[in-house]
Design a protein that fits this description.
- The protein is mainly alpha-helical.
- It has 2 domains: about 1-20 and about 140-190, no CATH class; about 25-135, Endonuclease III, domain 1 (Orthogonal Bundle).
- The chain has 12 helices and no strands.
- It starts with a helix and ends in a 16-residue tail after the last helix.
- The protein binds a DNA duplex (13 and 12 nucleotides) through helix 2, helix 3, helix 6, helix 9 and helix 12.
Length: about 210
DNA sequence: CACCAGGAATGTA
DNA sequence: TACATTCATGGT
């Protein structure tokens, strides 16, 4: 299995090259984007992020102080704006009350993950995305594409989040850069190929 | 027109 | 524990 997961990674990396995720300048932007992209096309998230940036709100501290109604209007392009505005308030409050990234980085990954999960609006995938791309912790992010990949290539019988995450983390070196690229490459693969059919013309994973 | 996109919370059995 | 429903905009 170790060889299999590495072969998949190598093929994706050879085809697409490094993805340099997360597509954001600041860690605040990673966190905000992680909330906004929940079940939403990234293009729509970009529009919402631009709106926030134009109003100087692409910072957790600023969002913490801004009224929810204003946030709703600005993030509308990302959909689910009623709940996402509330979630952004929750996560920004969390970072302000915990003195930001520096202090939170002192916690071990497991404890930090649990604290993130306690924030209403942060589920497992969002928490792990923040841990990997904002805190640079070596952790596997499992999204719908990852589940589909595992199922199609029969990497294991499982379908729930924890089992698939363990599959990757127990069979790969715990390297932050590896998990960073692996998740980004799976998303890249999904966008380029295999959205509807298991086998697509030119798919880099043919034969695996 | 239907369907989906870098999910999570809530309710039901 | 395992599903079903709800949330909402914008592209295909």
């Amino acid at each position: 299995m170790k060889e299999k997961l590495l072969e998949i990674f190598n093929r994706l990396y050879e085809r697409f090259g490094p993805q340099h995720w997360w597509p954001a300048k600041t860690r605040d932007e990673v966190v905000i984007g992680a909330i906004l992209t929940q079940n939403t096309a990234w293009k729509n998230v970009e529009n919402a992020l631009d709106n926030l940036k134009d109003n100087g709100l692409l910072e957790l501290k600023k969002l913490y102080k801004m009224d929810t109604e204003t946030i709703k209007e600005l993030i509308k392009p990302a959909g689910f704006f009623n709940q996402k505005a509330e979630y952004l308030k929750n996560i920004s409050k969390f970072f302000v009350e915990n003195r930001g990234f520096e202090e939170l980085s002192k916690l071990d990954t497991k404890a930090l993950r649990q604290k993130l999960l306690n924030v209403k609006g942060v589920g497992k995938e969002t928490a792990d995305s923040i841990l990997l791309y904002a805190f640079e912790k070596p952790i596997s992010v499992v999204d719908a594409y990852t589940k589909r990949l595992v199922k199609r290539h029969k990497l294991c019988e499982c379908s729930n989040y924890d089992e698939i995450q363990n599959l990757f983390m127990e069979n790969l070196p715990l390297d932050e850069e590896l998990f960073n690229e692996y998740h980004a490459l799976i998303v890249k693969l999904a966008k380029e190929f295999c959205r509807k059919k298991p086998i697509c013309n030119g798919c880099p994973l043919e034969g695996i």
